[in-house]
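STRUCTURE:
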C-alpha cells in the first residue's frame, strides 16, 4: 500500500519535478484526456490538469459534461467535450477517434470513468452488475490499449487509472465493484511495469470514500459508509495528478484517515476485512 512517503518511480521520460515532456513554457500546451469528467473526482482531475497548463479532452455520458467543459475553457484550457457511453465498445473507439482528431499528441490520460452498485449479490439485477464490469473494467482496458500503444510509440506519456482502496479488500455488499477495482489495481501496476523502460508511466489512484455522487448512484445512502464523512474530491484529484506527473506507481489519495485505513488493511486477513466491509456497506447499517 502506498502513501505520500512512497519513492517516485520514473522511466526514461519521467521528470522528478512533476512535469510532462513537451510541456515547457515556450512550447504548445500539452493535451490530456479525462474520462468520467462530469462529476466528482473526474471533474477535479480535469480542473487540476487545466490549472497545470493542459488542454483537455473530457468525456462522460451526461449533460453536466458541457458545464464542466465551459468551466475548463474559462480557466484557459482549450477543451473538447465528448459525450459517450463507455460501456459500449464502439463508444470507446469513438472517443479515441475524437482524441486523434485534435491532431495533438496525448501527454496524459486519466482513465477515471466508473460506477458502483451496492447490495446483496443474489438480489442485484445481473445487468446492473454487468454495467459495473463493462464500465470499470472492459472500457478501461480497451481505452488503455489505444492510449498506451500511442504513447509507447512516441516514447512518452503519463496515465492515471482510478482504482480504490476497495481494491485491497473483499467487498461484502459491493462484491462486483470491489472486484472490479482489484482488477484495475493489478492491471495498472502490471502494465506500468511493462512500459517503465519506454518513457511511459502508469499510476494507480487509490481513493477512499470521497464526497461525490458515487454512493447515491450505487443505492448506498442508507449504509454506514454512505452516510459517513468523506474526503474532498479536489484533494484526491490533486494528489492523483501530482503522482501521475511524477511517474509514481500508485498513490493512496485523500485524508490522513484514508491513508491510515489503507495501511491497516495491509496487515489484516481477508476474512477480517470482509467482515469489516460488511459493517460499513450492509444496507440499513446507517441506522
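SEQUENCE:
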Amino acid at each position: 500500500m502506498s502513501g505520500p512517503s512512497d519513492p517516485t518511480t520514473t522511466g526514461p521520460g519521467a521528470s522528478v519535478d512533476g512535469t510532462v515532456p513537451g510541456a515547457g513554457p515556450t512550447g504548445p500546451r500539452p493535451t490530456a484526456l479525462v474520462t468520467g469528467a462530469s462529476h466528482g473526482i473526474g471533474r477535479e482531475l480535469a480542473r487540476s490538469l487545466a490549472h497545470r497548463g493542459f488542454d483537455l479532452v473530457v468525456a462522460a455520458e451526461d449533460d453536466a459534461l458541457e458545464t464542466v467543459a465551459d468551466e475548463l475553457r474559462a480557466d484557459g484550457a482549450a477543451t473538447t467535450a465528448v459525450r459517450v457511453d463507455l460501456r459500449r465498445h464502439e463508444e470507446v473507439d469513438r472517443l479515441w477517434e475524437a482524441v486523434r482528431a485534435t491532431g495533438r499528441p496525448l501527454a496524459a490520460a486519466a482513465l477515471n470513468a466508473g460506477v458502483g452498485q451496492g447490495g446483496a449479490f443474489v438480489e442485484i439485477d445481473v445487468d446492473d452488475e454487468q454495467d459495473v464490469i463493462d464500465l470499470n473494467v472492459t472500457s478501461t482496458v480497451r481505452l488503455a490499449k489505444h492510449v498506451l500503444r500511442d504513447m509507447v510509440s512516441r516514447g512518452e506519456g503519463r496515465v492515471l487509472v482510478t482504482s480504490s482502496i476497495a481494491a485491497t479488500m473483499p467487498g461484502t455488499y459491493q462484491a462486483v465493484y470491489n472486484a472490479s477495482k482489484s482488477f484495475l489495481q493489478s492491471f495498472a501496476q502490471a502494465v506500468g511495469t511493462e512500459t517503465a523502460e519506454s518513457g511511459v508511466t502508469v499510476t494507480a489512484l487509490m481513493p477512499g470514500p470521497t464526497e461525490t455522487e458515487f454512493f447515491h448512484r450505487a443505492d448506498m445512502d442508507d449504509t454506514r459508509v454512505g452516510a459517513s464523512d468523506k474526503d474532498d474530491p479536489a484533494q484526491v484529484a490533486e494528489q492523483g495528478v501530482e503522482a501521475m506527473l511524477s511517474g509514481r506507481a500508485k498513490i493512496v489519495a485523500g485524508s490522513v484517515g484514508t491513508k491510515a485505513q489503507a495501511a491497516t488493511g495491509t496487515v489484516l486477513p481477508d476474512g477480517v476485512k470482509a467482515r469489516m466491509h460488511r459493517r460499513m456497506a450492509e444496507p440499513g447499517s446507517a441506522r
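REMARK: Confidence is low (pLDDT under 50) at residues 1-19, 21-25.
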